[in-house]
Please model this.
Amino acid sequence: MPEPVTPFKASPAAAPPTRRLRIGIEAQRLFRPHKHGMDIVALELIRNLQQLDHDNEYFIFVKPDSDHGVLQATANFHIVEVPGGPYPLWEQVLLPRAARKAQVDLLHCTSNTAPLRPGMPLVLTLHDIIYLEPLDLRRGSWYQRAGNLYRRWNVPRVVPHCERVLTVSAFEQARIEQRLPGTKGRVEVVYNSAGEQFQRISDPAALAAAKARYKLPDRFIFFLANTDPKKNLRGVLQALAILKKQGQLQCKLVMLDYPESALLAVLNELQAPDLRADIQLCGYVPNKELPLLYNLAEIFLYPSLRESFGIPILEAMGCGTPVITSNTSSMPEVAGDAALLVAPFKPETIAAAILQLQNSPAERARLAQLGLERVQRFSWRETARQVLRVYEEVSARH
Model:
């Protein structure tokens, strides 16, 4: 297991820019109502830059959608809505056109891909290159498969043209440099964090209301499922089946963002349809509601097959929830010694970790305290400081 790291060393104060920069940030999906990992990272980055940088001028390029209130314009932060068709057309044609019209000095694309001919210096956040790896993830939805095909086409072509490539863990940095020749020394790690709302909640009325709203059981394991195969639903269900067969399954599994029909199909494939009674499906839960569910959970389960970072690990730790996660890819780097690490391809190790925590209040308390200490090493404000430094360094060369 990799040694736990200290993610952040505070950045030195950035030198005042020699001129006011015009910085473009691509945040195409920021206004969509159902946000996921990369959307949350872009939102936290922009919010913290708003608080940190009053000198430069920003243009946030988004696609129109219903969640307008998630980000407010300020004196030096302009929200530019760019209507358009499918993602490749929006990114390759409409985004660079809007960026040129705004006369930005550089464009930061935040979600793995970027226009091949932007017409200005380009910074790319390359969260991961999972779609370039041989791991069989073909069981995902058609939308996920189409997105991966576009990334496989775009990323190897656009990375050589980027002034700077940012990624979110040392593990992913090594993977990128290994897979994409010519990137060694050009990829910089800027860690993610967890939002300030992910903390212990002591309001019993708020917790009781959430428990009633989502029909949560008294004791439950929290699992952020979706149809992406890397989330390892099959391994989780196999682990639960092991515990149920042993008569040791004391907690229900609460799953988010997973359709009933897809769950039943997996259970039938695993020949474990009786597990359905031990699973509570909650649908999509808004990000602002997640801290309530973390606080109510007895265990947070995150045994992914592959992650570039793993923000939910820190979200659970901030809420004082003991974490079980994987001993692969970036997850030991993020969790350090503050979680139980399991082999995600071996369901019996997941089952053993669940059994250990559900039977030991003392072990749950120990991990909860370690998690509360671990999460303090990460900061969205420090993320924003490091990204701002990159903007200024890139602009200084042009």
In short: The chain has two domains: 22-193+379-396, 204-375. The radius of gyration is 21 Å. Confidence is low (pLDDT under 50) at residues 1-6.
